[in-house]
């Protein structure tokens, strides 16, 4: 704007100078014409010609002044347009610089995204490799689980045929129940006061032996010699319920005579069980070898879980894979011990010994016979300690 003002001031000064020059020229011409007219004398047409010339010069000056004003107006207009174009050019330069900065930022973000994409791609490849390894391990574990399931089915069949239907359940419940009863008994013995002595009328004589205590004493006499324990003080002992008739003692003696026969049958059953287990192990070894050969010959595809080992026992409709827990595995290992422990029951607590229980259904009780002299019996191999019942249940069984 300062530049435009200075240009306008310069044009005005030039216009004033031009007007002054024109006025001076006009004055000189008028003076010259006046001198010439004075020399020629008074002629009427000379004065008219001079004023015509003056009017002509004034008209030319007015036209030149209008042209100068139009030129100044156009100059100002063009100067304003030049200023607006300069401002637009400056704004365009700023916009181009901003776009250049945005482009550089976009390039940096693109490089960062490319690096992140490469990292995700490497992670996806590692996850794919890990997934393939896990699928292979899952396939192998499913094959092993199938073989263990078949072995468990074989053991269940053997348990049903040779050791009764409750062998597996007993093997699972036996350790827990035994531990629980032992803890209860110890806590009861620690918390209860000392045992009170029983009446002297029901105590055994000094001449009775340990063998008679174990086999031929009545429950009343046995309790008199052993004494009341913590469980008896807790639950209470009714001496009237301990009375046993003579036929019951005779039946117990007849059951003792059948110990040898039961022992022989048990040994035969044990031999049969060992032979069956050995044959089952051989079958499982053969099936495992065949399964390994088939899995080695068949190519492993990624993510394919259908290449499981075929059933070894040749079942028409194999059951789905069943995963065994730690409890089932412990029960599987405890099946032989449970089969040996199923044939025994508990007797009195404290120092009492465990005697074999009668088989179910019980054989008919023979008629009372006179006491026979006892024959020396072979030593019976002690069995695993079973779950001891409470005194109330033991008294009810004795009654």
UniProtKB/TrEMBL annotation:
<protein>
    <submittedName>
        <fullName>Copia protein</fullName>
    </submittedName>
</protein>
<feature type="compositionally biased region" description="Low complexity">
    <location>
        <begin position="368"/>
        <end position="392"/>
    </location>
</feature>
<feature type="compositionally biased region" description="Pro residues">
    <location>
        <begin position="358"/>
        <end position="367"/>
    </location>
</feature>
<feature type="compositionally biased region" description="Basic and acidic residues">
    <location>
        <begin position="282"/>
        <end position="291"/>
    </location>
</feature>
<feature type="region of interest" description="Disordered">
    <location>
        <begin position="267"/>
        <end position="320"/>
    </location>
</feature>
<feature type="region of interest" description="Disordered">
    <location>
        <begin position="350"/>
        <end position="399"/>
    </location>
</feature>
<feature type="coiled-coil region">
    <location>
        <begin position="110"/>
        <end position="144"/>
    </location>
</feature>
<keyword id="KW-0175">Coiled coil</keyword>
């Amino acid at each position: 704007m300062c530049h435009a003002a200075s240009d306008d001031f310069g044009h005005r000064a030039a216009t004033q100078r031009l007007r002054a020059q024109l006025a001076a020229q006009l004055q000189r011409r008028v003076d010259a014409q006046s001198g010439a007219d004075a020399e020629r004398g008074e002629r009427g047409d000379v004065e008219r010609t001079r004023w015509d010339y003056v009017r002509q010069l004034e008209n030319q000056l007015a036209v030149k002044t209008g042209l100068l004003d139009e030129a100044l107006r156009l100059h100002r207009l063009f100067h304003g347009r030049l200023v607006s174009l300069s401002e637009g050019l400056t704004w365009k330069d700023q916009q181009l610089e901003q776009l250049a900065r945005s482009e550089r930022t976009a390039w940096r973000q693109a490089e960062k995204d490319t690096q992140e994409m490469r990292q995700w791609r490497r992670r996806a490849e590692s996850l794919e490799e890990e997934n393939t390894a896990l699928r292979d391990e899952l396939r192998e574990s499913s094959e092993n689980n199938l073989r263990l399931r078949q072995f468990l089915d074989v053991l269940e069949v053997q348990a049903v045929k040779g050791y009764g239907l409750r062998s597996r359940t007993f093997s699972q419940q036996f350790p827990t129940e035994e531990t629980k009863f032992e803890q209860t008994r110890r806590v009861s013995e620690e918390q209860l006061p000392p045992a009170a002595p029983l009446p002297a009328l029901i105590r055994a004589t000094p001449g009775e032996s340990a063998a008679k205590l174990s086999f031929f004493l009545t429950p009343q006499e046995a309790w008199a010699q052993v004494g009341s324990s913590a469980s008896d003080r807790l639950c209470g002992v009714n001496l009237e319920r301990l009375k046993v008739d003579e036929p019951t003692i005779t039946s117990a003696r007849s059951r003792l005579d059948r110990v040898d026969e039961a022992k022989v049958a048990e040994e035969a059953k044990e031999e049969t069980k060992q032979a069956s287990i050995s044959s089952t192990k051989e079958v499982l070894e053969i099936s495992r070898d065949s399964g390994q050969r088939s899995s080695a010959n068949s190519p492993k595809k990624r993510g394919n879980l259908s290449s499981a080992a075929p059933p070894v026992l040749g079942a028409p409709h194999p059951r789905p894979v069943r995963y065994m827990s730690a409890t089932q595995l412990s029960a599987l290992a405890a099946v032989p011990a449970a089969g040996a422990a199923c044939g025994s029951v508990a007797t009195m607590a404290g120092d009492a010994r465990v005697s074999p229980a009668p088989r179910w259904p019980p054989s008919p009780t023979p008629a009372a016979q006179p006491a026979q002299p006892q024959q020396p019996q072979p030593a019976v191999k002690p069995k695993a300690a079973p779950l001891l019942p409470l005194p109330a249940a033991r008294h009810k069984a004795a009654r």
